[in-house]
Amino acid sequence: MEIIAVCGLRKTFAVKQKRPGVAGSLEAIFSPTFKEIEAVRDVSLSVEEGETVAFIGPNGAGKSTTIKMLTGILYPTSGMATVLGIVPWRERQLLSREIGTVFGQRSQLWYDLPPRDTFDLLARIYDIPRNTCRARMSMLAEMFELDEIMSTPVRKLSLGQRMRCEIAASLLHGPRVLFLDEPTIGLDVVAKRRIRELIRTMNREEGVTVFLTSHDVSDMEELCRRVMIINHGQLILDTAVSTLKRDYLKFKIVRVRLSDPIGGFDMQGVTVLKHKRTNMKMSVDSEITSIDAVLGELMRHSRIEDITISDPPTEQVIAEIYLREDVGSIGGASDGSS
Amino acid sequence: MGAARYLSISRISFRSRTAYIMDVLAGSFFYALILFVFVQLWTTLAGSGHFAIEGLGARELVWYMVVTEGIMLGRARIEQETDEEVKTGSIAYLIGRPCHYVLFKFAVYWGDTLLRLIINVAVGSLVALIAVGPPRFDQAHLLQVVVSAVLAFSLNFFMVMCISLAAFWVEDTMPFRWIYSKLLFILGGLFAPMEVYPAAVARLARALPFSYMLYAPARLFVQYDTALFWRIVVAQVGWIAVMAGLTFGLYGLGVKRINVNGG
Q1: A40 pLDDT more than 80
Q2: In a domain? residue B263
Q3: How many CB atoms lie within 10 A of CB A234?
Q4: Do B8 and A125 touch (CB under 8 A)?
Q5: Which of the listed ranges A13-27, B13-27, B204-218 does the model predict with the highest average pLDDT?
Q6: Nearest Cβ partner for B97 among A105, A125, A153
Q7: CB neighbours (10 Å) of residue B125?
Q8: What is the pLDDT, as a whole number, of residue A197?
Q9: Which domain holds residue B141?
Q10: Which among A73, A106, A112 has the least Cβ separation from residue B258?
Q11: What ipTM, to 2 d.p.?
């Protein structure tokens, strides 16, 4: 069953332009000029019930603008979208009972009060019957490990604890679709992993459809089966995560700090991006060589004191997509993988 | 069900404000200080023997200020918060809920106002009792005064919401907020009742909404008059209807052109 249907969605913003200095300020008051920014350009997509979809792109790509149109917060300039058959910006309140939203950079929790108070308030706002609410809160508290922090004022919680509360709060009324806008932003590795596990569990156990935006490629890799990549407001790829991994994410970025400086490092499948005495940053093509083999080779020259392995940044993945595809043909591309 | 929902919002807003009880108490200290200064002014003027305002003596004028300053300093400052919600984008959470944003803010406003009001009433009454003794007030009229005060606070809410919602169109609503507070000072009758004003200014003040927020409930408290009460209530309800209509209209227009920052 199709849960989200988007056709030719477009959003433009008129941004006021101002020249520097006092003269520029006066000009902006009496004769303002505006520049039209096209945040989302002709996006069309479809999401089926129970899917976990990642909507990936660099900062300013149009991810959040799209999610805000799908949740009814922003009105599109043109195009159409339905979520559960409802046009979000026309029937926002009706839709709000069926969806949950988490905006990673905003909070819905009352800052000076314990999370329990916000949960109680949300139960009232969503008209959740007392018994249902009690059972639901108890289930969420157990799943998200909230019991210990339920009575601590939100301002005293860590970012990871707060995010667990935010997601649990957005699930209290049993939404069918969960929109997550950068849910892991600013979190450390352990907290990110925990949040991803919880989202996965909710998707599996409750069948909640998850639509997640992120600029972190790992969110997509660990959580989703399908990925859409957006850049400059255009959907440039819609495919299975496994396909993306196979075709575009075969590189890993490896940073090492060695105990002794080495002169140079040459190995097939490895490109040294930076090398300064004992510090090296390299790109490893996992199709040609394994990380193990690279580390083994390095350890023949020196002891490794520190190591970080990460995915290439989204910008690099996008550059790779543009390189491999005909840009003109991938705007709004979709192979419909799910 | 709807009313219970908004009552819960008021309750949580009240509880949230208690976290800043020291700020509220500090505000009340300032309130007591202002009252003390005006106690000196009115009692000195009354003592000079050249002072009479349509039956209002030093005692009435001090109690008048207890009410006007109590409302002025007791009203929740939602304007700055609303302005920031529109500008920073946190409004996103609030409009994506099964409750109306303006009514949500109204409930938050009352929860926040209530705590300040309770403390201000206690502090103001104490200062006035010590300085000039109890008010000449017939308790039979208490309900009418409370009704007028509730309408005054509600009118203030819709006025400040109109100003705050301007943030959908302008970059900063601070200048409007500043002008509003000064108009309340002057045309609202914060420091002295309309009877002190030159006739033309008093006529202007009565034609505008500001005096129905401060002067009206204070005047009823110190010198009750049933005919005046009905005139005031009709004017207050009329102004609330106008400003509420404007608020909902501005919100309806603004939300269509919302530009969530950082989005």
Answers
A1: yes
A2: no
A3: 20
A4: yes
A5: B204-218
A6: A125
A7: 15
A8: 87
A9: 2-256
A10: A73
A11: 0.82
